[in-house]
Amino acid sequence: MTLSDVVYLAVGIGALGAAVIPRLVFRQPLSMPMVFLAAGALAALLPLPIVEPGRDRLWVEHATELCVIVSLMGAGLALNRPVGLRRWQGPWRLLGISLPLTIAAMTAAGVLLLDWPLAPALLLAAILSPTDPVLAAEVRVGEPTDVEDDEDEVRFSLTAEAGLNDGLAFPFVLAALALAAAGGGASGAGWIGHWFLVDVLARIAIGVAVGIVTGWLLGRMFFRARPSALRLSEHMEGFVALGATFVAYGAAELLLGYGFLAVFVTACTIRAAERNHGYHKVLHEFTEQIERLLTVFLLFLLGAYLVEHGLAALTWQGALVGVLLVLVVRPLAGWVGLLGAATGPRERVVTALFGIRGIGSLFYLAYALGHSDRFATYADQLWSVVAFTVLLSVFLHGAAATPVIRRLDRMRRDSPTPP
């Protein structure tokens, strides 16, 4: 028996489990991520090699990167609500108010609880700020439908927020890198102007522009191209979604824009090109299957890492930071951000509570550690805090998602108008 034999067996079992487990845990206070995270923890007890993020950082960065961009394409394709200030007011508020509040509060927690300098504290806050509904299917918009505005406000807001803040958290990661390069103190503020003009304004604008142009061109090709060979919507081939994902991401990154943002905008633009076409469902189903396989794989490895290395490096202060984020900071920041929005109090509470942390946070950390050696001293603690926070989020949100969303749906049916 060789290691490759074990890998083939494990991958096969994982793929079958990814297909079967969601159906087994349907309508139960359990989720597929919970199952595979626990399976990875149990696998760590076997005499098998374990992925260690510090040693295998580059591999972790690209694996999580792939998972994130595939999930962003699926999220954008699922949304049928046209973009607008009023129609998207929930996501705009979560991005414009809740995200900065979360980053500010978590930076303070890093400084006060962990006794870290400002730069690593800001990095930790930026890494943990994005939501990741991919880890709880009950709280995101499902497959594309033909009905405009069919998404309920909770699922829509969380899906759109996750699609956009995976890109909008990036400037704060880069701010932490710039702050560390400047000496780590608030006094060396010369980097702020360049950061705001380039990393915030220019790179966001490039990401959005690439997404719009790519989505418009692909939408024209998919649905309106004169040669039938180019009119891919007639052929119903789902793997085209990967091509669209990679084109948008690669083009944006080559132009020094935010690829995550470009992928999500591309998906939304493709959906807007022909909202009622069944091809969107084909594309979405393919991305969902790939995303599920990648998520299963990564969470299995994360569970093994936590048992083997991660929890050993976790301090009580680091664990408290994760608990504060999941149970206090995100719920309060989400609630504040949604005050005044055209939703009922029940929807505001649920949206604020389900700020799920996941694969995106792992990517940001791997990226940051690969682009600066100034955080090497804090690397083990960063990995342990981030991994523990993801663990906590997966189990708390995974257990609560099904009963909470089912109850909310039932109350919405009984009382359609928010109280």
Number of domains: 1
Whole-angstrom Rg: 21 Å
Q: What is the name of the CATH class?
A: Mainly Alpha
Question: If helices are DSSP runs of H or I spanning 4 or more residues, what is the number of helices?
Answer: 15
CATH architecture: Up-down Bundle
Specify the structural class. Answer: mainly alpha
Instruction: Determine the mean pLDDT.
Output: 85
* Helix-strand string: HHHHHHHHHHHHHHH
Main sheet, how many strands, which sense, barrel? none
Task: Tell me the strand percentage band.
Answer: under 5%
What do we call the CATH topology? Na+/H+ antiporter like fold
**What are the segments in which pLDDT stays under 50 over at least 5 consecutive residues?**
none
Structure overview:
With 419 residues, the protein is mainly alpha-helical. The protein has a single domain (56-414), classed as Up-down Bundle (Na+/H+ antiporter like fold), CATH 1.20.1530. It is 71% helix and 0% strand. The chain has 15 helices and no strands. Helix 4 (89-112) runs antiparallel to helix 5 (118-128) and helix 9 (240-254) crosses helix 10. It starts with a helix and ends in a 5-residue tail after the last helix. The model has no long low-confidence stretch (mean pLDDT 85).
Topology:
Elements: H1 3-24, H2 32-43, H3 57-78, H4 89-112, H5 118-128, H6 153-168, H7 170-181, H8 191-224, H9 240-254, H10 259-273, H11 279-310, H12 316-338, H13 345-353, H14 359-371, H15 379-414
What is the gist of this entry?
With 419 residues, this protein is an all-alpha fold. The chain is 71% helix and 0% strand.
